[in-house]
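pinging the channel bc i need a second pair of eyes. not urgent but kinda urgent?? the chain im working w is below, pasted from the shared doc
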Amino acid sequence: MINKQDFEKYSQFFIEENHKVNLISKNDEKFLWEKHICDSLSLEKFFDKYDVPENLLDIGTGGGFPSVPLAIKYPQIKITAIDSIGKKIRAVQNLKEKLNLENLTPICARVENTNGEFDVVTRKAVILSHLNQKKHRKKSIRHKKF
């Protein structure tokens, strides 16, 4: 169940941070719930099917999507939010502190320079250039059994 008050506080704090850092476009602010929060929480369908993970890595978290909404809704998931842009990670850190999200760990780094094992990995609008995309695509298709 979503705690409406937590998300109202989050929306308010996010807009404050956005005015300082420009995490999303000013035009998108009025669609914060529809375009960003709701989209982030759509992972609930995945969790319903495959169980709620113990930990999650959000690659290229930017303004904290999906990591912050997921940290609010699922306090039992240890979430690592990684981005190479310092001002964005500082904004996510500020949101973490204002919302008291002990299950969220923002890290300023490139993903290829980090270590760890995660049950679920998310990425939104990130190109993983160090992967050979063509080879990876063939491999994943070949090993899928339905």
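so The chain has a mean pLDDT of 85. and The helical segments are 4-21, 32-41, 43-50, 67-73, 86-99, 133-143. — does that match what u expected or am i reading it wrong
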